[in-house]
Amino acid sequence: MSRTLYRWLLWMHPAAFRRQYADEMLWIFDEASATQGARGLLGDAAVSLTRQWLLRSGSWKIAAALAGALIQVTIGGLGHVLFGPLSRGGPLAPVHAAEPIELQSLIRIIIWTVSGIGVTVILLATWVKKFSARRIRAVHL
Q1: pTM above 0.70, yes or no
Q2: What is the pLDDT of residues 112-140, one digit of tens each?
Q3: 46 and 86 in contact (C-beta within 8 Å)?
Q4: Which of 115, 136, 118 is nearest to 126 (CA)?
Q5: How far does CA 79 lie from the centroid of its chain?
Q6: C-alpha distances in angstroms, 11 versus 14, 18, 24, 46?
Q7: Per-residue b/e over 27-53, b at no fewer than 16 CB within 10 Å?
């Protein structure tokens, strides 16, 4: 049963990874599971699967973009609460659709949101640069 689950986890890895490592990983599983048990190896395969699909395939970029969007929306919403119509009557004050937002408040919200986007882009660019440099060093070692 555990060998079948392990093979399934290996099968879920990207094709290039499977071609290069699956046979060896299955051999190690057969050898080690008899003496050490299968639980740790199954956990390792699950971690490897996540790592291969998220980091190696570039899918992490989607997760980073979603996180950046969430930060942007949160900062923009916080700016609206701090400087918008909600700030006049407290955080739970009702906002009427007919009430226009004052120009000064709108400018503050835009500055707050653009600042959030800028900080997010700078942080992600720095992280990607460091991450790429580590991967390049690892390949050349």
Answers
A1: no
A2: 778 877 887 788 778 878 877 777 777 66
A3: no
A4: 118
A5: 24
A6: 8, 7, 13, 11
A7: eebeeebeeeebeebbeebeebbeebb
Separation CA 138–CA 128 (nearest Å): 15
Question: What is the rounded CA–CA span in Å between residue 106 and residue 79?
Answer: 9
Structure tokens at 21: 């490592």
Contact call for residues 47 and 12 (beta carbons, < 8 A): no
- Of 110, 28, 31, 104, the C-alpha closest to 75 is 110
Strand segments (E) across 81-132: none
Q: Give the single-character DSSP code of 64.
A: H
Distance CA 139, CA 141 (A): 6
Name the band, by pLDDT with cuts 50, 70 and 90, for residue 23: very high
